[in-house]
Amino acid sequence: MKSCRACRLDKCLLEGMDPTMVEAEQSPAQRQFIQSLYKRREFLQQQQQQLQKQNEKEMEIKNEKDTEIKKEKNNNENENGTSDEINEENQTFCQTPDPILSNEFCRSETVPVTGLLHTMPQFVMLEPTNQANFTAVPLSEFPVSFGSSTINSQIVTNIPNNSFSPLFIYYQNNNPLFQFSEEEFLMVSAFVASNSAISGLSDAGRLALQHLSEHYTNTLMNHLRTNHGNMAATLRYAELARQAESLLFSTRLQPTEFYQRRI
Length: 263
Known about the structure:
Residues 45-90 are annotated as: Disordered. This is Nuclear receptor domain-containing protein. It comes from Heterodera trifolii. By secondary structure, this protein is of the alpha+beta class. Helix content is 44%, strand content 19%. The chain contains six helices and eight strands, in the order H-H-E-E-E-E-E-E-E-H-H-H-E-H. The chain has helices at residues 10-14, 28-79, 182-193, 203-228, 230-244, 256-262, and strands spanning 84-88, 91-95, 124-126, 134-143, 147-151, 154-160, 164-172, 247-251. A four-stranded antiparallel β-sheet has the order 1-2-6-5. It has a four-stranded antiparallel β-sheet with strand order 3-4-7-8, with helices on one face. Helix 3 packs antiparallel against helix 4 (203-228) and helix 4 (203-228) packs across helix 5 (230-244).
């Protein structure tokens, strides 16, 4: 600081000049002058800190608004059957309505099971080669691979565009006298789809699927009791349980054109 001339420039004071280091004769006037510089420096530093806090607060408010707008946009597009695409590190990802803030996708309630019944049920009649009667319901598209990226300093599990497999649940009715209602078929299908005996699941994911399976089972029983009474509901539930053994849950990687044409 030997070269400092105590010129009182705010920029110099703010960027590191310490007035107490000014070498000068200690006359009363000079001491008063140095003290005034020191107070000015404190004022400028406080002013800068306040301005920085204000800018950070404004940026935080802006980020919250942007997040709300994006979330609303995703929800609207999800209702319309579309998806939101983001470009992150030169890769395009298909983002779920609620990003999965975890490295283990199976801990999220959004995949792979609970989203199955979010789409409108559409029945598709297939023409099998063995003359049996098959029915397939495209409940959703099942993600078969995942990737992670950093968005706004958070690790987000993303699903690449080309990593979706159309999910079909196939049903062969071995008893022509017994017919599923649409609600029964969907609930039994969900029960089968939430089977926790899937390789690669974490303990948390397996427990989540077990809870889902219990939920669908209880929902089905309540539905049967409401529509058929307690005694008839028990008999129908037993028959549905036997029919559930004929349900085959699988993912089939089909060309997009074929999948769109089928539904």
